[in-house]
Amino acid sequence: MHDGSGRITVQQLTKRFGPVTAVQNLSFTVEPGSVTGFLGPNGAGKTTTLRMILGLVRPTVGAATVNGTAFNNLGDPARVVGAVLEAQNFHPKRKARNHLRVYASAIGVPDTRVEQVLQLVGLGEVGERKAGGFSMGMKQRLALATALLGDPQVLLLDEPANGLDPEGIAWLRTFLQSFARSGRTVLVSSHILSEVEQTVDQLIIISRGQTMYNGPLEHLRRSQQARVLVRPSDPEKLMAALRDAGIYNLEPTPDGRIAVVGVQPEQVADIALKAGVSVYGIEEERVNLEQLYFSLTQGQYTPGTVPQQFGPGQQPYQMAPPTPQSYQVQQPYQQPQTYQQPQYQQQPYQPQPDQYQPPPQYQPQQGYPPQGYPQPPQGPPPTGTPPAGNPVQDAAPLSPWQQQVPAPDAQQPGQADPAQHDQGGLGGKS
């Protein structure tokens, strides 16, 4: 039998998959009456932890209980815990209303509860549509409706805002907060840090399978000092007035403002008024959840980092905010040194002797040119004035297809040479 408290307890939970340690010595408690955010990088062990709470994965070491009892030992688990780990477990051809009726029959609740949860999640008008045609956001709503069928005391949700439009995200935020205010327990895992910051009251941040922070969100915010950004008419005069008032943690910003750490905006405004300095703008800048999250989880995938080992009973950062950090004054930009070109001793140029050797005289291959083609001239080229004749025919032997087409002004076969006529040959002029 469970105690009916609605409390989730994780005690020294460890899970190993072969050589991989997914969760290591993880401990935390989720109390009813508040929305608790479960944050961590991909691979930090969030989904594995949720599965161990729901009895889907058996832990290597440690235990996870709901209402003081392991999930598998709950007498009526659907009326105690409603969970959404994936929003894709729907028959694509089954209507949304019929999908809920199947689950309602399985856990023993009447069909009237189906209509209630359809209206609750905003799917009352599309209950007759098939789930396969739903968008990602509509599937998220249908999955949440399935988890709410048994009117559970505890809700476990893994990335419930995936696929929701801004209106759907705002609706989900309001629903979870009202659900928790009714005295119930909500544990939600999400990567949308800006939305988590607006929704949750408590935070559990894990990294490398270990707890990095477990406590109220407001305590984590207070661990980081806020600063006031003021735009005065005379920065030097205001800085002198602040120092006279005992405020020394201040610095000018590149945009002409002054950053004052550890004070309230009203205090800076009063000092400026007494000093006769006009203030054109003033605002308080707080460290947001994203910056706090990165400061606690950075280095999970940095090469060479080794996770810190904690012995039995040791709880890192359990219900204690991290050490406060102050703003660091940014050093002015330093011009890099001019590159100095190394000096090399230049050698005088020495001409290289002429090593060129003329190629050997070309020797035609055996059997070239083929039979029937005129042989190329042998021996050295003749000296003196070249003989008269056709330059094209004298330059190189013609191939058979070239010989078939006579060149312009070329001598035809059987035609007498004009030069022989001039020399008194046969048929020549007397």
Task: Describe, in plain words, how this protein is organized in 3D.
The chain is of the alpha/beta class and 430 residues long. Among the domains are: 8-222, P-loop containing nucleotide triphosphate hydrolases (Rossmann fold, 3-Layer(aba) Sandwich), CATH 3.40.50.300; 227-285, Alpha-Beta Plaits. 27% of the residues lie in helices and 18% in strands. It contains 13 helices and 13 strands. The strands form three sheets. A six-stranded mixed sheet has the order 5-6-7-3-8-9, sandwiched between helices. A four-stranded antiparallel sheet has the order 11-12-10-13. A hairpin with a 2-residue loop joins β1 (8-17) and β2 (20-30). The model is unreliable at 301-342, 391-395 and 418-430 (pLDDT under 50).
Short structural description:
Among the domains are: 8-222, P-loop containing nucleotide triphosphate hydrolases (Rossmann fold, 3-Layer(aba) Sandwich); 227-285, Alpha-Beta Plaits. It is 27% helix and 18% strand. It contains 13 helices and 13 strands.
What's the topology here?
Blueprint: E1 8-17, E2 20-30, E3 35-39, H1 46-53, E4 61-66, E5 81-84, H2 96-107, H3 112-120, H4 136-147, E6 154-158, H5 166-181, E7 185-189, H6 193-199, E8 202-207, E9 210-216, H7 217-222, E10 227-232, H8 235-244, E11 250-252, E12 258-261, H9 265-275, E13 279-285, H10 289-297, H11 391-395, H12 400-404, H13 418-422
Parallel strand pairs: 3-7, 3-8, 5-6, 6-7
Antiparallel strand pairs: 1-2, 1-4, 8-9, 10-12, 10-13, 11-12
Helix pairs in contact: 2-3, 8-9
